[in-house]
Every structure is written in C-alpha cells, then in structure tokens.
Amino acid sequence: MEQLLLLFNTILFRPYVFAFLAAFLFAAIRLIGWPRTWRFWLISWATAFICEYSSTRNGVPFGWYHYNGSTVGQELYFSNIPFMDSISFSFLLYAAYCLTLCFLLPKAASPGTPGWLAPLRFDRDARTGWTALLVTALFFAFIDMVIDPVALRGDRWFLGKIYYYPDPGTHFGVPLANYAGWAVVGLISLSIYFPLDRRLPPLGTIEHSSATPRLLLGVGLYYGVLAFNLGVTFWIGEDLLGMTGTLLYVPVTVLLLIRLLHRPVAALNSRSLQ
Questions:
Q1: Rounded (5°) CA angle 140-19-259
Q2: What is the mean pLDDT of residues 182-192?
Q3: Other C-beta atoms within 10 Å of 50: how many?
Q4: Residue 192 φ/ψ, nearest 5 degrees
Q5: pLDDT at position 3, please?
Q6: What are the CA-CA distances from residue 47 to residues 35, 53, 66, 127, 181 (Å)?
Q7: Which of 18, 32, 82, 95 is 20 to 30 A (C-alpha) from 221?
Q8: Tally of domains within the chain
C-alpha cells in the first residue's frame, strides 16, 4: 500500500514524465501492438535500471554518478534509483527507434498516406537489422546530450537537484562516458527485443502498406521531449546550452523532412506539361 501511494505521489510530482509515458504507450500500441509494446517497455526499463544500479556503484556503463536521495519519501524509488528516471529510458528509446525507422524503412508500393507524405513500409528485416540497431542507439544518445545537461541543473527548475557527478565532465558538466552508457542501454535493449520481434506473429497489413502516420506519433514524442528540454534550458537562462542543443538537431531535422516529404507524381507530371 505504501508503494502504491508513492507511485501515485510520483505521478503527481512528475506529471510531465508520465504524460510522455502515456504518449509512448499510445504510439507504440498503434504501431507495434500490445504484445510487442509491453516487451519493449519491460526490456528497456529493466536494462536501464540494471545499468543505473551498476553505474551508481561501480561506474559502468555511464561512468560514476550518484542520486542524492533528496526526493526519497516524495516519489517512488527502486533501491537508490528514482522510478521516473528509469522509465524515461523506455519512451526515449522507442521515440529514437521511430526516428531511425523514418530514415531506414523502404517505400511502400501502395501509399495509404497523404500525397505529400512518403509512404514507408514496416518491413521486418529493415526494422530489426544492424543498421536500425546502431542508428537508434545514436539518436538515443543524441537526445540525452540535450536532456542530461539541463537535468544536472535541476535545482534551477522543477526537477530538483537529484543527482550529481563526482567528476564533472566536459560537456556542460556531463562526462562523455554518460552518453556512451546511453548508447550501451539502447544496444542491449534492442539486441534483446529484435529477436523477439522477429519471432512474434506478423503485424498484418501494416507490414505491406504505409506505416508513416503511426511512425510519426513516435517521432512527435521524440521532438516533444526535445522541445520540452530545450524550453526549460532557455527558461533557466542557459542560452549557450540551448543553442548547442538546437543546432545539433538542425541537420537531423532537415534530412528527416527531405526523407518524409515528397511531391506526388501527378503534381510533378502536371507541372512538366505546363
């Protein structure tokens, strides 16, 4: 009963985290269905928790850092790890996965999307291949380059000062090993999830028609988290940090738009006849 009460308090204390979690569940169930969604969530959460538990004790894989326990009694903890922190890995990994697939999935033969939006087929080999694994881990680590520096300054906004690095790093106080650790979490999680995805029953028509609109729900989650953290960054007056994070995503966003936006063949033909 005490744990349930703490969970309820955690939701009230961190509503933005659980709003992102709810968005993840909605988007993932729409794209990959419930059987894959709960496996994805459980694998990524368990991997993140084990890695955080390890790093706070022996520095692997994120490097040394410590939670100071300042919110114990206010929100749910598992051992020394805040629950809201470890569940964040799940929805961020899914969002990074959707962003990756927008670059990697093949075009669908029958569009099934608005004429201006590229139809992407949810091909099993493309979505569970080595390229998807590596690029997702990269985008997963990328977004933490925006999240972690502002989270480290949590005493200046409503997150609070909940953790610290004994040896501050070169990237706005964050050690580079931390970002490598995020990539490791992504690689381990997807290396476990992908074989399960291949063994589960096919997803039906979505594997042969356009999955683009459903993928964009996950991409929207990615950019929603990004916008939230950049907004907080500028709000607390960290303009250099905010501009650095913004510029990091300019080329990614431009390439994404080039990949997703296309002119219908009919429109091209009509223009060529004029």
A1: 45
A2: 98
A3: 14
A4: -85, -40
A5: 82
A6: 19, 10, 18, 20, 11
A7: 82
A8: 1
Residue 61, preceding peptide bond in cis (omega within 30° of 0): yes
d(CA 101, CA 109): 17
Q: Which residues of 200-222 are buried (b: 16+ CB within 10 A; e: fewer)?
A: eeebeebebbbbbebbbbbbebb
Distance CA 252, CA 236 (A): 25
Range of the domain at 120: 2-273
What is the value of pTM for the model shown?
A: 0.94
pLDDT digits (tens, 9 = 90+) for 33-53: 999 999 999 999 999 999 999
* Paired tokens of 207: 């594997």
SS3 118: coil
Contact by Cβ (8 Å): 135, 157: no
The residue-averaged pLDDT of 181-186 equals: 98
Q: For residues 85 and 82, what is the distance between their CA atoms, to the nearest angstrom? A: 5
Sign of CA dihedral 187, 188, 190, 192: positive
Confidence category of residue 11, pLDDT binned at 50, 70, 90: very high
